[in-house]
Amino acid sequence: MTANPPTVPQQATVGSAAAVKQQLEDALKEAGFLAQINTAHDGASLHVTMYSSKCRFADSVEDATEWLHQTGIDATATLDERTSRVVMTLPSADSVKMFNAALLQPWITARTTATHLNDVLADHGLDCTIDVAPASLSLLLADDELDTAVQLARLLGAPDIGTGLPRHRPRGIRRLTERVHWLITGVVGSPVSTELEHGCAHETDRLTIKLTLEQTRRLTQRLLLAEVANPSARLQRLLGRTVGAGASVTTPGGGPGPDHYTITLGPEQARRLTHHLDPNLDVAPAVV
């Protein structure tokens, strides 16, 4: 009797989900989702076990299946009995692409928008907290007498926003919040939402400014126009984002100076910067 040959899993093809596993892993990381990805026995499909609480469906097979149906994603949902977690089975590269677009891309966009705002706030020495949602952000300013809000207003062209207000009293903080509300509304061109929590002996005053992503972008662009105390720090951050870590910016005397800046780049970083400034030039960065 001839024995049956062993079953050999299919190799991942260009159109299979397994072929774009790395893209899915990168998207999950960028979106801040906690999940586990395993290649199915067929060598082509991917099993995605969802651990994140940011999913747009409840932690049940029924809700996950309904969400897949509504979004038109060719995939199935099952329950891992060991972990009691929903497992998505994505059979093709197209299903992975649609999964990324429907579930992950809104979070990626929001997190990127928040990072840009946080960077420019840090350039100005403002220590704020940003909470991210798929279509909006919440900027939290928390300190005694809302000094950070006053500093933010100064950067936006209202240096006297706190003048005459008794900010050590709840009434003064309320008035300041109203002024900040209208200032931000004017800057971004549409009404924003603000929420004030008065402090006490053990807690600081807390002002939350809720913004849409478009409002956040407009606020970020406005803050980019404000002069920073140390322009070289901003320049170095922007260079690092473009060419990678290791680029350095120095000024005469080693500190902020109005005369000139010296930018030091490695050969590969120089190629990346040149390509970024003019993608049509034949100096594309080497593959790393």
Walkthrough of the structure:
The protein is an alpha+beta fold and 288 residues long. Helices cover 41% and strands 18% of the residues. The protein contains 8 helices and 10 strands. The strands form 3 sheets. The chain has a 4-stranded antiparallel sheet. Strands 5-6-8-7 form a 4-stranded antiparallel sheet. Strand 1 and strand 2 form a beta hairpin. It is flat and about 70 Å long. The model is unreliable at 5-9 (pLDDT under 50).
Q: Keyphrases for this structure?
A:
about 290 residues; alpha+beta; 4-stranded antiparallel β-sheet; 10 strands; about 40% helix; about 20% strand
Structural class, judged by helices and strands? alpha+beta
How many individual β-strands?
10
Shape: flat
> Gap between N and C termini, in Å?
53 Å
Low confidence ranges: 5-9
Total of helices: 8
Q: TL;DR of this structure?
A:
By secondary structure, the protein is of the alpha+beta class. It has helices spanning 21-31, 61-71, 93-123, 147-155, 170-188, 213-225, 231-243, 267-277, and strands at 35-39, 46-50, 76-80, 85-90, 129-132, 136-143, 193-197, 205-212, 248-250, 262-264. The strands form 3 sheets. It has a 4-stranded antiparallel sheet. A 4-stranded antiparallel sheet has the order 5-6-8-7.
Annotate the secondary structure layout.
Blueprint: H1 21-31, E1 35-39, E2 46-50, H2 61-71, E3 76-80, E4 85-90, H3 93-123, E5 129-132, E6 136-143, H4 147-155, H5 170-188, E7 193-197, E8 205-212, H6 213-225, H7 231-243, E9 248-250, E10 262-264, H8 267-277
Antiparallel strand pairs: 1-2, 2-4, 3-4, 5-6, 6-8, 7-8, 9-10
Helix pairs in contact: 1-3, 3-6
